[in-house]
Design a protein that fits this description.
This protein has 309 residues and is mainly alpha-helical. It is built from 11 helices and 3 strands.
């Protein structure tokens, strides 16, 4: 039996964030600007870290990986939306949609895992400063990132394989600007109990492991900070992890608001919230980790000055 007969649809219609043409024009310009800034800015961060030997530490190794993931994460969802707007189309093929779901799951979870290893790096630098270089060895850093990639790919593969087993009938309208798994599940003619079960078991595990690591790391950090005798030491410790906490709060706050309830209750408010972690968070990461970081600003200035020369 062919794929068309199995699914009943060969494409999905991405309804976007607004049905009004005037608003769509504004959103197109906004999304294009945010995507280009995210793309160029994160690329410069990766380039600056690679070219400056003074900041090639574990923290900046993880930051370079986060920048790469943010570039990929934005590129999974935004370009298709921009192309569709230019072509005056709202369609996305079945295969493109399933591919988008696969990479969306990979990169959203990679963000979480990288934020957790960065929290552990903060814990080590603040709570174990004398043993920091011994603990955060290059081999361990590579192992942590590699384990994150393997875990997220296996999880994405499982969720996507379960998704392609579903039957989709005549209703193919997706209330989002990309193939978000939750609204796609709502379109299925079959019972999605197994899919929801996997989301709330395996998906919950993939979500809770990095989230728990972040909570434990910052619990230890704040416990140690409160024991510091000098106000200068407290300010220095808080400045080290302050930007990271901002990113974590924004990222996990949006995800908890959208995905911690059954797919059947997915609403228009959830559609707007998805913009926070698919479009806004990668952009904000760029400014938080570059503009609030003295070493990063220095590396970027060096990179720009070299390029001018």
């Amino acid at each position: 039996m062919g794929r068309d007969n199995q699914t009943g649809v060969t494409e999905f219609i991405l309804l976007g964030l607004s049905g009004q043409s005037e608003q769509e024009e504004v959103l197109f310009g906004l999304f294009l600007w945010m995507y280009l800034v995210t793309l160029i800015g994160n690329f410069l961060i990766v380039l600056a870290i690679s070219c400056d030997s003074h900041i090639q530490t574990s923290m900046y190794f993880f930051l370079a990986n986060l920048s790469c993931v943010d570039i990929c994460f934005s590129s999974v969802t935004i370009p298709k939306n921009l192309v569709n707007h230019i072509l005056r189309s709202k369609s996305i093929s079945y295969m493109e949609c399933m591919t988008q779901i696969y990479f969306f799951i990979i990169f959203i979870n990679m963000d979480g895992f990288l934020l957790s290893v960065m929290a552990y790096d903060d814990y080590t630098s603040i709570c174990c400063p004398l043993h920091y270089t011994m603990i955060m060895r290059p081999k361990l850093c590579v192992l942590l990132v590699a384990a994150s990639w393997v875990s997220t790919n296996l999880h994405a593969l499982l969720q996507t394989l379960l998704m392609v087993q579903l039957t989709f009938c005549s209703n193919n309208a997706v209330y989002n600007f990309f193939c978000d798994p939750y609204p796609i599940l709502k379109l299925s003619c079959l019972n999605t109990f197994i899919n929801d079960l996997m989301v709330f078991t395996v998906g919950e595990l993939i979500f809770m492991i990095p989230f728990t690591c972040i909570i434990i790391s910052y619990d230890y950090i704040f416990s140690n900070v409160l024991k510091m005798p000098s106000a200068h030491g407290i300010r220095k410790a808080l400045s080290t992890c302050g930007s990271h906490l901002t990113v974590v709060s924004l990222f996990y706050g949006a995800i908890l608001g959208v995905y911690k309830h059954p797919s059947s209750s997915y609403s228009v408010q959830d559609v707007v919230t998805t913009v926070t972690f698919t479009v806004v968070t990668p952009l904000i990461n760029l400014f938080i980790y570059s503009l609030r970081n003295h070493d990063m600003k220095g590396a970027l200035r060096k990179l720009i000055s070299y390029s001018i020369i």
